[in-house]
């Protein structure tokens, strides 16, 4: 099989097989999980914003379409397609098409912006990866604290703003560190122009990027592990604000695991070292030398010495915890390392139900203790087979597994992978992976 360049819009099936260790240098795209709330924040502020490092995956393109459908203007400079200009409009729009909004989970981030523009937000139940029930109850409680009214039905939900002139601080205590509810509270406070005091906030890099953006827009924000406060400052002149989407920590982690599983040596550029610290810790526990400096993640798996120590990869919403999206690529890597490893993800209770059957097609033997927890003992030797990309992170894990499985592994369902990564196969190919399109 001869490796060829995989363009961003590729065939619906790719094939991968073991080859040489991955080496070289590659730069990650902007983070999908950070870009989506930042785009919603632009609409909530209703100010001109220039947003740089915007990834070209399909979820982000869907969010841009939603902004256009609900009244905002978007444009990309010809000289820099990764930059998007978002401009408010004085013209009322009929609203987003339900079928468009239902494609992604992040459509719910638009509620505050729609309340500012129309006093009412009507959206379908969010779509996205089918990885278990991730309800919106905490979002609705946030809006209730601002005096909004929420009604739901089988098709979706409606949030309507209540007439209120109070400038009192809105105090909310989250029962758990929900990223979605934290962002909802930040954007709703920005629209209302009211101070916010939020207890037990989510402090993931994606949330902190929104915090930083609001600071640049003139808001005063203080952050601690227990409380996040947001206070409006006097209005500044309406001028274009320049924001930047941070590098994709999950893409960086996926590429790092791919390099590690092949015994390679590579530099992964464009990601904050702080954002991948839990991933680096897990790699080192598996005996893979890895580290960060400035915006570069370095993996030197040629010098790896497997420790035989078990890896305990438990997804967490706590500050500094392991992001749930790191778990699938780490699982694919840990299958090749000695030790009895534990993986748990209660945040996305349907994820293992997607991933484990696909890994089993390659011959992986994994013991499920529950729908969210599993164990296995490595090293295991996989065999190539046909597998299906059922969600974004399952797809990235299967690509990594295919780099070690004997024979050829074919991946179908790549439209799911492209929702989060515009060209992950291309990046792997740039590092030397033996990967190619499969044409009918």
How would you summarize this macromolecular structure in one to three sentences?
With 440 residues, the protein is α+β, with helices and mostly antiparallel strands. It has helices at 32-45, 58-69, 98-101, 111-118, 137-145, 179-192, 205-216, 249-261, 277-285, 327-334, 351-361, 392-402, 414-420, 424-430, and strands spanning 13-17, 23-27, 49-52, 73-75, 84-87, 120-124, 149-152, 156-160, 170-173, 196-199, 220-223, 227-231, 241-244, 265-269, 290-293, 296-300, 312-314, 339-344, 367-370, 373-378, 386-388, 409-412, 434-437. Helix 1 (32-45) packs parallel to helix 6 (179-192), helix 1 (32-45) runs parallel beside helix 7 and helix 6 (179-192) packs parallel to helix 7.
Report on the architecture of this protein:
This protein has 440 residues and is α+β, with helices and mostly antiparallel strands. Helices cover 32% and strands 23% of the residues. The strands form 6 sheets. The chain has a 4-stranded mixed beta sheet with strand order 21-22-1-23, with helices on one face. Strands 2-14-16-15 form a 4-stranded mixed beta sheet. Strands 4-5-3-13 form a 4-stranded mixed beta sheet, covered by helices on one side. A hairpin with a 3-residue loop joins strand 7 (149-152) and strand 8 (156-160). The longest helix has 14 residues, at 32-45. Mean pLDDT is 90; it is low at 1-10.
């Amino acid at each position: 099989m001869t490796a060829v360049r995989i363009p961003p819009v590729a065939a619906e099936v790719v094939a991968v097989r073991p080859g040489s260790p991955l080496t070289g240098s590659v730069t990650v795209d902007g983070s999908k999980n950070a870009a989506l709330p930042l785009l919603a924040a632009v609409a909530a502020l209703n100010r001109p914003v220039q947003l740089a490092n915007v990834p070209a995956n399909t979820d982000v393109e869907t969010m841009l379409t939603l902004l256009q459908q609900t009244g905002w203007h978007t444009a990309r400079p010809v000289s820099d397609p990764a930059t998007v200009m978002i401009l408010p409009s004085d013209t009322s729009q009929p609203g987003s098409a339900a079928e468009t909004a239902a494609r992604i989970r992040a459509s719910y981030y638009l509620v505050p912006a729609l309340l500012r523009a129309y006093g009412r937000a009507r959206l379908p139940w969010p779509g996205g990866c089918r990885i278990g029930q991730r309800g919106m109850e905490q979002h609705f409680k946030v809006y209730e604290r601002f005096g909004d009214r929420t009604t739901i039905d089988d098709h979706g939900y409606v949030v309507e703003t209540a007439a209120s002139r109070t400038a009192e601080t809105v105090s909310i205590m989250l029962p758990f560190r929900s990223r979605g509810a934290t962002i909802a509270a930040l954007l709703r406070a920005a629209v209302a122009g009211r101070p916010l005091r939020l207890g037990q906030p989510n402090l993931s890099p994606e949330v902190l990027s929104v915090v930083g953006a609001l600071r640049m827009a003139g808001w005063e924000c203080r952050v601690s592990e227990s409380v996040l406060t947001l206070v409006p400052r006097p209005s500044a002149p309406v001028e274009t604000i320049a924001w930047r989407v941070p590098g994709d920590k999950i893409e960086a982690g996926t590429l790092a695991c791919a390099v590690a599983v092949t015994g390679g040596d590579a530099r992964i550029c464009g990601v904050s070292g702080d954002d991948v610290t839990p991933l680096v810790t897990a790699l080192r526990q598996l005996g893979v030398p890895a580290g960060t400096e400035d915006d570069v993640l370095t993996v030197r798996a040629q010098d790896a010495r497997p420790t035989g120590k078990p890896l305990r990869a438990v997804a967490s919403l706590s500050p500094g915890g392991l992001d749930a999206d790191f778990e699938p690529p780490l699982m694919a890597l840990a299958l090749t390392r000695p030790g009895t490893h534990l993986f748990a993800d209660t945040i996305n209770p349907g994820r293992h139900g997607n991933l484990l059957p696909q890994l089993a097609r390659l011959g992986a033997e994994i013991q499920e203790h529950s729908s969210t927890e599993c164990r296995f003992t490595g090293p295991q030797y996989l065999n190539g087979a046909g597998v299906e990309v059922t969600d974004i992170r399952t797809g990235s894990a299967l690509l990594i597994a295919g780099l070690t499985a004997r024979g050829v592994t074919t991946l179908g369902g790549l439209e799911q992978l492209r929702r989060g990564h515009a060209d992950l196969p291309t990046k792997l190919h740039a590092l030397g992976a033996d990967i190619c399109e499969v044409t009918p």
